Amino acid sequence: MKFSEAWLGEWVRSDLTREQLCDRLTMTGLEVESQEPVAQPFSKVVIGEVQTVKPHPAADQLRVCEVSLGKGASLTIVCGASNVRAGMKAALAKVKAVLPNEVHIQETQLRGVTSQGMLCSAAELSLGEEGQGLLELPADAPVGADLWDYLQLSDHLIEVAITPNRGDCLSIQGMAREVAAITASKWKPLSIPKVKASVPDLFPVTIQAEDACPRYVGRVIRGVQPATTTPIWLKEKLRRSGLRSVSPIVDVTNYVMLELGQPMHAFDLARLEKKIVVRRAKEGEELLLLDGSAVQLTTETLIIADQKKPLAIAGVMGGIDSGIASGTQDIFLESAFFTPAVVARQRQLHQLNSESAHRFERGVDPALQRLALERATRLLVDLVGGKPGPVLEITAKKGLPRKTLRLRRERIESILGCSLITDKEVKSLLESLGFECKKGKKQWMVRVPSWRFDVTQEIDLIEELARLYGYHKISPTRPVFPVQTQSFSEGRITLPRVRRLLCDLGYHEAVTYSFVNAELQKLLDPQQEPKPLVNPITADMTVMRTNLWPGLLGTYLYNRDRQQLRGRFFETGLCFVQENKKLLQLPMLGGLLSGSACPEQWGQPVQELDFFDVKADIQNLLQLTHISQDRFIFKPFNHPALHPGQTAMLYREETPLGILGALHPALRQKFDICEPVFLFEFNLDTLLLARPPYFSEISKFPEIRRDLALLVDRHIPTQEIRDTIVRSGGEWLRQVNVFDVYLGEGIPESKKSVAFALILQHATRTLRDEEVAEAVERIVGTLRTTLGIELRG
């Protein structure tokens, strides 16, 4: 919200300086973002009256003007503006005047005629964007007066960041009410008398969507003159609030919106068919908006229509076909209340932004519509003439109820941790904001004003007391609450422990959106149909993720584009999978690795990342579970997004935990990825299961090791061989480790040599050699009969 300090001063006066006021506003929750002068400095610019305008003897586009400075003084000015005419009053920069951007005015010769200064446009004085014509001043502007003083340009602009819950502060009236409460000063509410009807004309209005539009107020004004020039005072107030002047009628509606906070709209009455209807749009209806864009309406869109066609998207933007034009003679002036959620929904649905929608979706005072209409009517009649008809007001049967809340003394002291605010101060502070307080026994019944949509419960009232009383006055105290310890099951790993381990392994944690691009999600998980979002926040976030890879891949590509080729990222979060018409929310752990296996260094050559580097990280993670690694099995697996020869599914016995593998070559090509990229994803519910600690006596008898070099068919997985050894090894077999795999000279092409170390140990005695030999023979025999494996000669 940007406003002029002088305009605010018309409503409320305080003894604070501008800096003190801005500081107080910030400390009470209305953060002041900036303060700046309303105009760039200029000097020796006065109000001049053009006496005569004659053609330039040597230039068709120039005019020679005689401009009066008052008291008999006048200057000859050569001017090329199209709107210069005798009798007008304009801004005159005299010789030696200094304009914004350090432009110095000197006496000059223009095609043989001496010009003793310059008549200025608004753009040349940095007072607007209009640069084609002169800045025309009111007829009662005092000739010869300093323009800086006449326009009160010593004013300052204050811009406040209004949070979404404080829509009541999006007006001068709202800011004045807030400043008066903050500074304990009085403010002057605007006196708005009713404008009597001078014509009997009414235009019918029907509300078909009372839930979305509980109140609608309108009136006909006949015989307006839209070609009238907007007065300079009104243009300046709009400019100082960040709005440009359009036309007198539009300017008045914008002015009332800034002044009172009520957005309004004016329709050309001649373009309306029979009646106004507030309704939901019909499927297939289209509306050409004031900004020139065409919108396809849906059945969710609340519109203002007439008997035949849509006229406007309610609370957001009007249509071009019913707007005010230069030939408009009669208007229908609208002032309505639209439900905030409805306006917010359709603004986002149609991706439109406007000052009206900004206010309606934050909440406009539902008691303001009649007052705003009367105010706008008076301004229009004074500026563009016309004869107003009677006011038509429609309010829904349910009405617009106001809330009454209970505020307890003990609750105030409990939340604020002190009893500094007296009962008298509680009543005074709340009433300064417009609340009505009725004192009871150790409590108040507080009626919330119609403009405070954000106050819905007792804690909101306490917040109002705290910020007005002053947070700096409330001494900090230690909170007192019962200590509650959280119990952790020894049968699960905690998620922070997983995060710490991955960070120790060189990973960076990523936090990405749960909403992802539909096309990217389909590439990375084509087997799942993602849940589409009804109201996506951007065009690239239209579905809910079914796995964590879209966010991780996006993080990797962002870093890759900034020359960070070696990356380790992980993320924990929910994925959303549809199963049997239900949407499951699955807690998942995902990761991405790219670049070389180790950071670049002199001690070893650069080694490209491979599948076993990823597998090693996962095995480190599995160590946290204290479950024997024998129970975890990696099996080959096919996934559409991963390399068919470098992908595995991880099982704990028969339970699948997740998947890991290299990004599919087709996807690497699509995303122009040259370096290797590996992905993994695991279900946290199953991955975090651990074996509780238990006691096991350590044998004091020696271990015996036997090595087996086996000649194996290449297609037989080493895991299958190991499982067979474990099953046939007996109770004395403690460990089975692979320590060598050989392919090459002396080994047939269809074979491979795999060497296993067998560790045997008895719990209560030393094993004899013949017992060990018997166990080894039993293992070799089982391998030979089940897998066709022989000992290597």
Description of the molecule:
The protein is of the alpha+beta class and 793 residues long. It has six domains: 2-38 and 155-183, Phenylalanyl-tRNA Synthetase, Chain B, domain 1, CATH 3.30.56.10; 43-150, OB fold (Dihydrolipoamide Acetyltransferase, E2P) (Beta Barrel); 205-395, Phenylalanyl-trna Synthetase, Chain B, domain 3 (Phenylalanyl-tRNA Synthetase, Chain B, domain 3); 404-473, Phenylalanyl-tRNA Synthetase, Chain B, domain 1 (2-Layer Sandwich), CATH 3.30.56.10; 495-687, BirA Bifunctional Protein, domain 2 (2-Layer Sandwich), CATH 3.30.930; 704-791, Alpha-Beta Plaits (2-Layer Sandwich). It contains 20 helices and 40 strands. Strands 3, 4, 5, 6, 7, 10 and 11 form a seven-stranded antiparallel β-sheet that branches. Strand 31 and strand 32 (582-594) form a beta hairpin. Helix 5 crosses helix 6, helix 6 runs antiparallel to helix 9 and helix 19 crosses helix 20. The radius of gyration is 40 Å and the shape is elongated. The protein starts with a strand and ends with a strand. The mean pLDDT is 90.
Structural class: alpha+beta
Provide the CATH architecture of the largest domain: 2-Layer Sandwich
Radius of gyration: 40 Å
Instruction: Output the CATH topology of the largest domain.
Output: BirA Bifunctional Protein, domain 2
Report the sheet-strand fraction.
25-35%
From the spread of the alpha carbons, the general shape counts as elongated
> What's the helical proportion of residues?
10-25%
